[in-house]
Q: What sequence folds into this?
């Protein structure tokens, strides 16, 4: 077995993300040749198929986005940050630290620590996105903050686009998540003929093209081997022909107990 987790996947598991949540409504791409040495690496080989729900045309997700921009003050604190009616820094206030840029970085860390939303920072701007798979559900949520001395401007959550025909997982059972039993996972071969050698499982985020990830944002990915038997993904036929239908009946991800 040669399952490999990307930096983004490991970071999310270490923080508060779940495997099923990160890959919900994502896609699985099948390639020829040997898998890369890291799931952060760019894809290699020839793309032979994109697995979706019932081979439907995939609409990737555009994550909704909002922001907090710190604009003034050399002291004080950010006491709350609310999205809709929900405080996304429930551990307490973030105090001014050295500069607005550093305070913004501290605020992003506080948001990420609790996992309700995902934050990134550039200068004094903290960008806030909901979890993968939420699509347009958070559009229109108002972003605001309770402030002492520090001032800020806000952009409300907007521009999310829901994914369509992405893959779904069942609830975990004894540390294992599996493809949703009621959903057909399938693809029609492309760029054939070719021999399937490895796969990459992607989140629903449209931003991840499969290129090398050398710096943030670190996308969740999982790579694995393909064979007729004894691989991370077993296919009844690994010889892929253009236009030929293929179905994946079983797919499991296991978190080991030891």
A:
């Amino acid at each position: 077995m040669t399952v490999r987790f990307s930096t983004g996947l490991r970071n999310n598991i270490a923080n508060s993300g779940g495997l099923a949540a990160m890959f919900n409504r994502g896609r699985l791409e099948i390639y020829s040749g040997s898998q890369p040495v890291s799931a952060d690496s760019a894809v290699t080989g020839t793309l032979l198929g994109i697995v979706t729900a019932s081979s439907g045309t995939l609409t990737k997700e555009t994550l909704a986005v909002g922001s907090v921009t710190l604009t003034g003050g050399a002291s004080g604190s950010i006491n709350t940050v609310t999205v809709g009616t929900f405080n996304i820094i429930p551990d307490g206030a973030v105090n001014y630290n050295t500069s607005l840029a550093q305070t913004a970085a501290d605020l992003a860390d506080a948001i990420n620590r609790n996992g309700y939303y995902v934050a990134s920072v550039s200068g004094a701007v903290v960008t806030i996105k909901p979890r993968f798979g939420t699509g347009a559900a958070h559009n229109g949520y108002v972003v605001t903050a309770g402030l002492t001395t520090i001032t800020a401007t806000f952009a409300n959550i907007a521009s999310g686009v829901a994914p369509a025909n992405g893959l779904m997982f069942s609830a975990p059972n004894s540390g294992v998540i599996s493809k949703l039993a009621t959903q057909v996972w399938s693809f029609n071969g492309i760029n054939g003929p070719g021999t399937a050698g490895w796969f990459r499982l992607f989140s629903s985020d449209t931003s991840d093209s499969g290129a090398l990830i050398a710096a943030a944002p670190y996308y969740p990915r999982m790579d694995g081997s393909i064979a007729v038997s004894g691989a991370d993904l077993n296919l009844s036929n690994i010889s892929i022909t253009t236009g030929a239908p293929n179905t994946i009946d079983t797919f499991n991800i296991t978190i080991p107990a030891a």
